[in-house]
Design brief:
Helix content is 43%, strand content 16%. Among the domains are: 98 residues, Zinc finger, CHC2-typedomain (DNA Primase, Chain A, Alpha-Beta Complex), CATH 3.90.580; 116 residues, Dna Topoisomerase Vi A Subunit, Chain: A, domain 2 (3-Layer(aba) Sandwich). 36% of the residues are buried. By secondary structure, it is of the alpha+beta class. Helix 9 links the parallel strand 12 and strand 13. The strands form three sheets. It has a five-stranded antiparallel sheet with strand order 4-5-6-7-8, covered by helices on one side. A five-stranded mixed sheet has the order 9-11-10-12-13, with helices on both faces. The chain is elongated and about 85 Å long. The chain has eleven helices and 13 strands. One of its GO terms (molecular function) is zinc ion binding. It holds the Pfam family Zn_Ribbon_Prim. One of its GO terms (biological process) is DNA replication, synthesis of primer.
């Protein structure tokens, strides 16, 4: 079979299967081929918070460091090979043989064989996905069931906890277990499902296996002005800067902003919603701002961006702005 004919046959057969192909050929994980996962570590360069898989149809991906491309491009990068070798590897996985056909009937039989093989793999993939989703839901439910007991055994957070002192924040709604601050996380319906634990150094740890998509921590009661932001400290800073007269949703990460923004809109249909962005000027494409813009567009909200507070700043969020404005002493707007 001529090279260009073989290549076109492989391209055609690969369509819609790039999630399975990249896992089998390159060893990518479920998250790395999940279009719903954004701003995750790149499987090629390893950089944090910069990669997303776009589609199983053509294998399109994007990394703020590596650039973008299709499935063959990613195979070439991961396997350090040229395009013909990438086609061969994908073709072997798909079961496509490079051989001439002696007759039209033989070619039709090969097409039928490939169609059957692709359908079998599609069904196997769907079965695995359903099983994995069921295991994941079960684990999330198990974790959620432990959260009330953990909070019941915890103490009110110490105002002198090193993280709170450094951020100049009171322990708004926080609990403490040993040296860890505990942030209660909720989903739509304000159901308690998870915790974020904050170390004295500021490292964030969620409960292993707990739900992360669409979770939030909420400050304040019903209000005309509602903010959506990334983290607990940013949310607490916004809440204090507006004299605790607003409602704030902390989405616990930029990848969660859009989902939490939709929840905030549903829970506050008559309010003015504002997405308070992290100004990630130190990163290519400013992901804090770009994710905030996506979230704002999804719900018809405004975007508020903090100004850079230091000439050498590694980006600025509203926690930095609050501190630069005087913190607990003078930080209210």
């Amino acid at each position: 079979m001529k090279a260009h004919i073989y290549t076109e046959r492989v391209k055609l057969a690969a369509g819609g299967q790039w999630d399975s192909i990249l896992q089998a050929v390159c060893g990518l994980t479920d998250n790395e081929v999940n279009p719903r996962k954004r701003n995750i570590p790149c499987p090629h360069c390893g950089g944090r918070d910069r990669y997303e898989f776009k589609s199983a149809d053509n294998g399109n991906y994007f990394c703020r460091h590596c650039g973008s491309g299709d499935g063959f491009s990613l195979v070439m990068k991961m396997q350090e090979c040229r395009f013909p070798e990438a086609v061969e590897q994908v073709g072997r996985y798909l079961g496509i043989e490079r051989k001439p056909y002696q007759s039209e009937a033989e070619e039709l039989a090969e097409q039928a064989r490939l169609a059957g093989l692709m359908e079998t793999r599609k069904q196997e993939r769907q079965k695995r996905q359903k099983q994995e989703a069921a295991r994941k839901r079960n684990r999330q439910q198990q974790v959620a069931a432990t959260v009330p007991g953990i909070l019941a055994d915890a103490q009110p957070a110490d105002p002198n906890h090193p993280y709170l002192v450094r951020k100049q924040l009171p322990p708004l709604g926080l609990y403490q277990q040993g040296r860890l601050l505990l942030v209660a996380l909720y989903i739509d319906g304000h159901k308690l499902v998870n915790l974020e634990r904050i170390t004295p150094e500021g490292r964030k740890l969620s409960l292993a296996g707990g739900l992360r998509d669409g979770v939030y921590h909420r400050f304040g009661g019903e209000s005309w002005t509602v903010y959506i932001c990334e983290g607990w400290a940013t949310g607490a800073s916004l809440y204090l800067m507006d004299n605790q007269a607003v409602r704030v949703y902390a989405a616990m990460g930029k990848g969660n902003l859009e989902a939490v923004a939709r929840i905030a809109r549903e829970q506050n249909p008559d309010s003015r919603l504002i997405v308070a962005a992290d100004n990630d000027t130190h990163q290519p494409d400013n992901p804090g701002l770009s994710e905030a813009l996506k979230a704002a567009e999804a719900i018809g909200a405004a975007v508020l961006l903090p100004t850079q507070v230091q000439a050498t700043s590694n980006g600025t969020d509203f926690s930095d702005f609050y501190l630069a404005s005087g913190g607990l002493k003078d930080g209210s707007m």
